[in-house]
Amino acid sequence: MSIQKIGVVGAGQMGNGIAHVAAAAGLDVILHDVKQEFVDRGMKTIDKNLQRGVDKGRMTEDEKQAVLGRIASTTDLGDFKDCDFAVEAVVEDLGVKQQIFGALDTTCRSGVILASNTSSISITKIGAATERPERVIGMHFMNPVPVMKLVEVIRGLATGDDTTQEVLSLAEKMGKTAVECRDFPGFVSNRVLMPMINEAIFCLHEGVGEPEAIDTIMKLGMNHPMGPLTLADFIGIDVCVNILDYLQEQFGDPKFRCAPNMRRMVEAGKLGRKSGAGFYDYGA
Q1: Of 140, 166, 198, 242, which one is the catalytic site residue?
Q2: Catalytic residue among 73, 190, 198, 242, which?
Q3: What is the pLDDT of residues 172-192, one digit of tens each?
Q4: Which of 90, 163, 174, 215 makes a 20 to 30 Å CA pair with 281?
């Protein structure tokens, strides 16, 4: 099946980024969220990110408008009936994802691939909510989507070979480098990343170093582009907590136990950049 039109469920940080890169690659996109204000916010972010490209001379104003013109918005999943591909990018909650995939399975044509941008949850369990598990796959984009090249492609137990190849080709068309892995909790990226972030936060909790010291040591000592506390703020501290809780539940391994100060920050509403404060202060 030729993929020319894709539906994106979720207009937040990841969803609007996926819509951005898909439209920039020449695909028609329908961006969905449950409220119009969320969709409008997502479209505003896409406009702002495209404008950065115009300001830096990477694209013209006409090219920017052409990309925006390929993105339609909706609050009705029924509008996905003509899509050739659908990808979900909502909260990391298995029940929510299964509900969405059940609805997509009913709405989308037979044979259409249903992908999840989940960063940790089982693709096999998500696919079980549909009548097409062989056409369900993980397509984990990295944040920020317009900048980061990697897409982690995750095969569920029932995912077909043809589904995997089509998604690898789609990711390449979107200007990404796709790397395949198997369906284990956290896959590769977050199974390795989250314990590192968590240990850095334990270092802060135990007074081993201040945030700036921990981040600088990891940046300069390990050649990381940003320190683990800055990265946690960027990802969202609540997202980190959710992933760690899921990994501990699935593996039963205490190495995934969430640092207590991180959980308290979430309870206080300090979620990182998106809330204006986390391990660092970002203002309003």
Answers
A1: 140
A2: 190
A3: 999 999 999 999 999 999 999
A4: 90
Is residue 119 flagged as an active site residue?
yes
Based on the residue annotation, tell me whether 199 is a catalytic residue of this protein. Answer: no
Q: What pLDDT is stored for residue 132 in this prediction?
A: 98
Domain contains 187: no
Task: Provide the domain count of the chain.
Answer: 2
Task: Please tell me which residue in 88, 92, 120, 152 is annotated as part of the active site.
Answer: 152
C-beta separation of 263 from 245 below 8 A: no
Q: pLDDT digit string (tens) for 119-136? A: 999 999 999 999 999 999
Of the candidates 119, 120, 122, 198, the residue annotated as catalytic is 119
The CATH number linked to 141 is: 3.40.50.720
CB neighbour burial string for 209-230, b if at least 16 within 10 angstroms, e if fewer: eebeebbebbeeeeeeeebbbb
Do 161 and 227 fall within a single domain?
Answer: no
Domain that residue 203 falls in: 192-275
Q: Is residue 215 part of a domain?
A: yes
Is residue 190 part of the annotated active site? The answer reads yes
Q: Cβ(127)–Cβ(113) under 8 Å?
A: no
**50-94 residue pLDDT tens:** 999 999 999 999 999 999 999 999 999 999 999 999 999 999 999
